[in-house]
Amino acid sequence: MDDSNNRVELDGLTFDFNRQIQHSQICVRAGAAGHQIKRYPMSPTDVNGASAPQTPLGETDNTARNRLVIGLLLVSAFVVILNETIMSVAIPHLMEDLAISASAAQWLTSAFMLTMAVVIPITGYLLQRLNTRPVFILAMSAFSAGTLLSGLAPGFEVLLVGRIIQACGTAIMMPLLMTTIMNLVPPESRGRTMGNISIVISVAPALGPTIGGFILEHLEWRWMFYLVLPIALAALALGAAKIVNVTTPSKAPLDILSVVLSALGFGGLVYGLSSLGGEASHGGGTSVFPLWVPVVVGVIGLGLFITRQFALQKRDAALLDLRTFGTPVFAVSVVMMAISMMAMFGSLILLPIYMQNVLGLDASQTGLTLLPGGLVMGLMAPFVGRLFDKFGPTVLLVPGTILVSAVLWGMTTLNQFTSIYFILGLHIVLSLGLALMFTPLFTSSLGSLPRHLYSHGSAVIGTIQQVAGAAGIALFVSLMTLRAADLAADGVEAIPAMSQGIQLAFLCGAIISMFAIVAAFFIRRPPAQPMGAEPVPGH
Known about the structure:
Blueprint: E1 7-10, E2 13-16, E3 25-29, E4 38-41, H1 63-82, H2 91-98, H3 102-105, H4 107-129, H5 132-152, H6 156-184, H7 190-218, H8 223-226, H9 228-242, H10 256-281, H11 292-312, H12 328-357, H13 363-391, H14 394-411, H15 420-447, H16 454-489, H17 494-520
Antiparallel strand pairs: 1-2, 2-3, 3-4
C-alpha cells in the first residue's frame, strides 16, 4: 500500500481512496487506466474513521421488512377491532336462536368493551416485559381461539366466554400496533403511518354493523365468526414468521393490586356507563342493582388506582405510568381524543335508532346510509397523514374540530321530516372532520413522549377510547330516552317525542365539541427524537 497516494493494488484492481473532504467521496478505479471511476458518497468524518459510511457494507435495508410488519399489524388490528361492533345488528337473531332476553344479549357487546377496558392497562406491562413477536402471537392466538369458540358456541354462556377471549386479544393488539410504529417509523413519516391506524380505529367500528348486516342477510350469525377465523389464523401464521422484535424487554414488575384497582376503576366505569345507556334504551327496569353503584365503584377504584400509580412510578414500577400526562401535548391530545370518541360512538348508536324508529328505515337501508361516511374516513386517512407530515397538527385539527362541531349542531335539527340525503351529508362531513382529527391526535400524543413511555402512552390511549366510547353511548342514548319519556308522559306522540329526545342528545354533544375547538390551538408538532436511541433487533 502506498500511503502517500492512498492507493491499494490487489489482483489487478486498483482502489484509489481520494481524501477530498470537500467532495466527500471514495473513488474506486478497476483494472487498467481508462476504466470508469465510480464514486460513492461519504460523510467528511468517514475518511478519518470517526463514523461508519451512510450505507455500511453488509447492512440490510429494513424498509421492506418494516413495511411488511406494519401491514400485518394493521390488517390484524382491523380484523380484531371490527368485532367490537359487528355483533350489534345480530342481537335480534341471537335472542331468537339462543332464547335469551334483550338485556342478556346486550352483554355480548358490553362484555367486549368491559374486557378491553380491564385488559388494556396491563398491556403496558406486557409490552415492557415481552418482546414484539410473542406479544403478537399471544394477541392473535387469543383472538383466534375466542373466534372459534364463539362460532361453535352451543349456547349463550359459551358465546359470552368466546367474546371475552376475543376482547383480550383485541385489547393487546392496538397498543402493540402503536408502540411498534413509534419504534420503526421515523418522525417525519409517522403522520402517514398513523393515518393508516386511524382507518383501523375509526373505520372498523363504523363498518362493523354494515358487514354484520350483510352477513346476516345471507347467512346465520355463526358465519360472522367463521368468515373472520381464516383471516385471523392467516395473520397469526404470517406474523409469527415475519414479525420482528422492535423493543428491548425489561424485567418490569407486575403489581397485582394495581391490576385489581384498574379492573374496578375502568371496568366499573365502562360497565356503569354502558348499563346506563342500555337501561335507558330499553326503558329501564332491567338492572339488578341501582345504576349509580358501578359508576361510584368505578370512580373510587380509579382514584385509588391513580394514587397507587403515582407511588409506583417513582421507582418505575407502575402498571400504567401516568407521567405520560406530564407532557402537555399528550394530555391535551387525550382529552380531544376522548371528545372525538364520544362523538363517534354516540353518533354510531344514535343515528341508527333515529333512522329506524323515527324515519322508518330498515336495517339494511340504515347500514347503507352510514357506509359512505366510513368509506370517506378510510379514504381520507392516508392524505391526512401526508398533510400532517408536511404541515403539522394545528392546520388539520382546527378545521376538523369545527366540522365535527358544526355537524353536531346540524343534528340538533333532525326530526321526523328530515331528508335522508341531509343525514347522509351530515354523516359524511362528520366522518371527514373525525378523519382530520384522529391522525394528528395519535401522532402528536405518542410522538411527544420519550421512547420508554411509548407502551404506557399506547395503553392510556386505548383505555381512554373505551371509556369515552362507553360514555358517549350512555350520554346520547340516555338523554334521548329520558327526554322522549318525559314528552310522552305529557301526551306528545311517540315519534315527535323521540325526535326531540334526539335533538337534546346531539345538543349536548355539540356543546361538548366546542371545547375541542379551543384545545385544537394548543396542539403542536412534537420535537423529533432520534431513531437510534434504542437498538432495534432485526430478528
